[in-house]
Amino acid sequence: MQDQIKTSKVNLPKYTKGEEIFNWIGHCVGAALSIAALVICVVFSALSNELRSWKVVSCAVYGATLIILYTMSTLYHALPVGRAKKVFRIIDHCSVSLLIAGTYTPYTLVTLRDYSNGWGWTIFGIVWGAAILSIVLTSINLKKYEKINLICYLTMGWCIVIAIVPLFKSNLQSGGFVLLLLGGILYTLGAVLYVLGKKLKLKYMHAVWHLFVLGGSILQFFSILFYVI
């Protein structure tokens, strides 16, 4: 009974059949790429001579959150309108927080922690703490806390700015930082388009947002693969 009450409070956006096809296909591709990303990152981490255990664990977390986000998004958009779709809408939003925190994990536990133990664990704690808070709020009432969660996503995504000096002083080269930054910019532009699309009720804007998310994930994957591992 309580589950029925919770899902009854979840509003489903009105997408056309064509929009939903584009929505789930885009992130289905992302899910497949995420599996490859997890395998590649863990294998390269295992072959590393330095900080091997930290790299393997952090990349496993990162890869797992990538898979969760794109898989949950694919299922949510592929499901027909109904209670199951409402449940997966909540899970889909929760997985955004997981991915942000998961992406930070290699940077904080490998790159930053290797330079400064304090900086690494501090940023790690802030991001994962914010992710847990966002997941709790989303689970309680998605609609009520949707704007707060969007602000939370952007704050989590850009909190690396406070560690920009130690990040530059660490072994993360300029190329790695540029890819990390460009990925963040794509995520942010995608979020802006997502909001505009909802306000202006533009068709296929959600699919465009998915493409920006996929692009941001790809850029940050290469940043982690080539400059963190």
Number of domains: 1
Strand-and-helix sequence, N→C? Answer: HHHHHHHHH
Shape: globular
Computed over alpha carbons, the radius of gyration is: 18 Å
Output the CATH homologous superfamily.
Answer: Rhodopsin 7-helix transmembrane proteins
CATH architecture classification: Up-down Bundle
Report helical residue fraction.
Answer: over 70%
What is the element layout, followed by pairings?
Elements: H1 2-8, H2 17-46, H3 52-78, H4 83-115, H5 117-140, H6 146-158, H7 164-169, H8 174-200, H9 205-227
Helix pairs in contact: 2-3, 2-9, 3-4, 4-5, 5-6, 8-9
Question: Your description of this structure?
Answer:
The N terminus is likely disordered. The chain has one domain: Rhodopsin 7-helix transmembrane proteins (Rhopdopsin 7-helix transmembrane proteins, Up-down Bundle). The protein is mostly helical and 229 residues long. The chain has nine helices and no strands.
